[in-house]
What does this fold into?
Amino acid sequence: MNRLNGKTALMTAAAAGIGRATALAFHAEGAKVLATDIDEAGLAALKAEAPGLETAHLDVRSDAAVAALFKGGFAPDILFNCAGFVHHGTVLDCSPQDWAFSFDLNVTSMYRTIRAAMPGMLDRGRPASIVNMASAASSIRGAPNRFAYGATKAAVIGLTKAVAHDFITRGVRCNAICPGTVQSPSLEGRINANPDPVAARAAFIARQPMGRLGEPEEVAAMAVYLASDESRFVTGTAMVIDGGWSA
It folds into this structure.
C-alpha cells in the first residue's frame, strides 16, 4: 500500500512503543520517514528493520536542537509528535519540578516542533498534516494518579484545536490521537516498578472494557489515516482509541 507515497514525515519519540510502530507504518505506506529520538540504540534497531528509513538524534526539550533540524529549510508534509512522559501520582505527589518537566516534554516540545515546521509547511503551498499524541486520560476522562499527565494531555488537545483553527484555510491540518492503555515499554516500566507487577498488569487489563490492552500498531493505523489524504476533511479532532474505556 502507498497511502503516504511522496510524503515526507518527521517523527518524534520513534525509537519505541507507539512512535516506533508509527514510523514503521508510515514507512510501509511509502512515506520518506525521518525518525527521531534521544535513544540512539533504539533508532539503530529501527533503521535496521526498515531499510531506507532515516533516523536522527533529537532532544525535543532543546530549542536549539529543534531549530537546527529545520535550519536548512526542512519542510515535512507530516509531523507526528509522540514524545511524552507519564508522571504517577496526585497533585500532592507532583513537585514543581515534576510539573515543569511534564509540561515541557509533553506539551512545550510540540510547541517547539510545530512552530519550527509551520513556516515550511505554509511556504510549500500543498497540504500538510500534524498529528499530536494526546491521551484518553486528559480532558476526555480523568484517571487515578495521573494528575500531571492528564493535565498535559488536556493541554495537547487544546493546542491541537488552536493550531487547527488558525491554519484551517491554509492547507495545514492538525489532529490529536487519544489512546487508552497501550502495551509499550513505558507501560512495562510502570508495571515492573510496582511491588507486585503481576497484580499491576491484571489491574491495567481489568479496567479495559474489551478485556485487553491496546497494541501500538492499532494506534499507528489511526496515525496513518490522519496523515493521509483520506482524512483531508478532518482537522481539530481528538480521535479516541481506548477500547471503550472512556465510553
